[in-house]
């Protein structure tokens, strides 16, 4: 038996344990330390917190879930964040006796970690593998940073085919940084740390998903010209050129836009900027994908890197790039590098076979009924909120959803990656025209323009969406079928699209049953699915996290691995969809 531990040391720190080539358990540090994006060793030129370590909570979680000790490991493989070596940090912080077991992805390494989680579990024997993100690792001795990289995957081998980089002075920079530049300007930032911390000194982490959500409200602006320049496999843009563009736009059209106004996204100027950078990104991703097909001559494509969390651009690539099949892993961002590192160690260093294709992202541990009951007693004792519990199943949850109730759904092991996929979700009725606003304004405290995603039973998704194939990780955004848009107002975005998740009975039987039961009751085999968290928080991991979020938000019920939890004596808020005359 071989055991390999993979570690991601950049932002979204994480750990993964692979046994005999198969992923056993994986977790993001933010789910355990409850710090969104769980700052890693990425940022240079700023202070380094004294508490900054490897993702030790995630390491302990993985070892405990697999019931192994740290000295049972055959290898520990880490990535190399921007400007930092991995090995000395792991040797410093990891209490493993045999330090020779600690290895590093071949330098520069970061993009290889992304490529590994994209290709090895794809199920493809051959594929072009494209990595596009904000910042990779530094090339040794050059000071230059991985920008985007093309690999050729064949069997158990990944070979770098083409790569471009950029200098640390940002006289040229990546597509991820391009998108983040304007995201910061629009004010979409998770705030933590000191004011000079983060990308462009924004004091936090750019929330690019908000920019993507705002973009459909904007107008096409071809009159603003092209902000990206294409040169073969390279895409050129500099921070200074973008600053010049920004200042010119502010002077010409941004008089209503104030950086001091937290609601500045409401201006048409902000909406047009979001639309413009989304359009530019989609064009750039299509350019890179077309180049990948021409260079490799392959008909399958694997994608990874933080930019691949832009599910709208992903759909353009899937539909228009000419590849017959596209695979994007659920943890396409930096958290997935831990899986990539572990798989690289298992396959390339130990000679193990590739894992089974990734059909789900539920790599967390399950919790026992005893742990659930202990969490219930803890929450009741500390909050004084009286909770009622009863045994329940998917049919009970479906009936509540059909009655326009909002249900927290906690089932099995948590997902790896930023999307809730039916293990740590909030569920609601996609048919109710007021449900989106209620969730945004009352339950999750988010901006009102942000959309919600549909989860559909895989066998019927094609009847409701202009889509064929699979979208298990909610990383593609097809059109909602014309006849279905009026009937799915809570999950249809302003441009008629939806970030679709297809759910198979094989990959997630309990969640599939909920949706199927809801379909039997309503004629619509689709539920609204959003992550189980409040604004600015990581997704819940434990029963205690779920219960704490439940008692302090306006969720109506909580399903906890077979127990249905309700708040005794609670009255529905005035804005609740079930109280609306539009309820149906």
TrEMBL record:
Limits of the Carbamoyltransferase C-terminal domain: 398-567
Domain of life: Bacteria
Sequence ranges assigned to domain Carbamoyltransferase in this UniProt record: 101-343
Similarity comment: Belongs to the NodU/CmcH family.
Protein name per the record: Carbamoyltransferase
Species name: Catellatospora aurea
């Amino acid at each position: 038996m071989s055991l390999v531990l993979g570690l991601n040391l950049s932002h979204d720190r994480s750990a993964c344990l692979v046994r005999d080539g198969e992923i056993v358990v994986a977790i993001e540090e933010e789910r355990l330390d409850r710090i969104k994006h769980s700052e890693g060793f990425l940022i240079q030129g700023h202070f380094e917190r004294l508490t900054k370590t490897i993702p030790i909570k995630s390491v302990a979680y993985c070892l405990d879930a697999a019931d192994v000790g740290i000295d049972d490991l055959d290898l520990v493989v880490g990535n190399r964040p921007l400007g930092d070596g991995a090995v000395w940090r792991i040797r410093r912080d990891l209490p493993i006796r045999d330090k020779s077991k600690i290895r590093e992805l071949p330098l520069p390494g970061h993009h290889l970690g992304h490529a590994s989680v994209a290709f090895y579990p794809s199920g493809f024997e051959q594929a072009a593998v494209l990595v596009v993100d904000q910042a990779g690792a530094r090339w040794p001795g050059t000071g230059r940073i991985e920008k985007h990289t093309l690999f050729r995957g064949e069997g158990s081998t990944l070979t770098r085919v083409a790569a471009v980089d950029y200098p640390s002075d940002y006289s040229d920079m990546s597509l991820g940084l391009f998108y983040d530049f304007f995201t910061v300007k629009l004010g979409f930032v998770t705030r933590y740390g000191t004011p000079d911390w983060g990308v462009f000194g924004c004091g936090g982490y750019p929330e690019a998903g908000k920019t993507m959500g705002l973009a459909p409200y904007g107008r096409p602006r071809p009159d603003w010209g092209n902000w990206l320049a294409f040169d073969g496999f390279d895409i050129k843009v500099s921070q200074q050129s973008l600053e010049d563009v920004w200042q010119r736009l502010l002077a010409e059209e941004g008089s209503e836009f104030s950086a001091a106004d937290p609601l500045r996204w409401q201006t048409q100027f902000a909406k047009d900027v979001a639309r413009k950078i989304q359009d530019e990104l989609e064009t750039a991703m299509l350019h890179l994908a077309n180049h990948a097909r021409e260079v490799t001559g392959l008909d399958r494509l694997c994608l990874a890197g933080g930019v691949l969390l832009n599910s709208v651009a992903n759909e353009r690539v899937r539909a228009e790039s000419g590849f017959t099949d596209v695979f994007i892993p659920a943890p396409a961002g930096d958290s997935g590098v831990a899986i990539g590192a572990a798989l690289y160690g298992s396959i390339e260093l130990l000679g193990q076979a590739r894992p089974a294709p990734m059909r789900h992202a539920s790599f967390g541990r399950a919790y026992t009924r005893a742990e659930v009951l202990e969490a219930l007693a803890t929450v009741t004792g500390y909050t004084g909120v009286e909770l009622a519990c009863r045994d329940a199943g998917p049919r009970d949850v479906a009936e509540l959803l059909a009655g326009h109730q909002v249900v927290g759904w906690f089932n099995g092991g948590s997902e790896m990656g930023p999307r809730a996929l039916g293990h740590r979700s909030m569920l609601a009725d996609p048919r109710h025209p007021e449900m989106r606003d209620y969730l945004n304004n009352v339950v999750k405290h988010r901006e009102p323009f942000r959309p919600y995603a549909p989860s559909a039973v895989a066998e019927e998704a094609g009847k409701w969406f202009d889509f064929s194939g699979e979208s298990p990780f909610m990383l593609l955004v097809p059109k909602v079928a014309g006849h279905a848009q009026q009937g799915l107002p809570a999950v249809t975005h302003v441009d008629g699209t939806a970030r679709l998740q297809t759910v198979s009975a094989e990959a997630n039987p309990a969640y599939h049953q909920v949706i199927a039961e809801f379909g039997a009751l309503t004629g619509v085999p689709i539920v609204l699915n959003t992550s189980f968290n409040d604004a600015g928080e990581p997704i819940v991991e434990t029963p205690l996290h779920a219960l704490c979020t439940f008692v302090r938000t306006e969720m109506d019920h909580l399903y906890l691995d077979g127990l249905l939890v309700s708040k005794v004596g609670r009255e529905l808020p005035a804005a609740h969809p079930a109280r609306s005359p539009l309820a149906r």
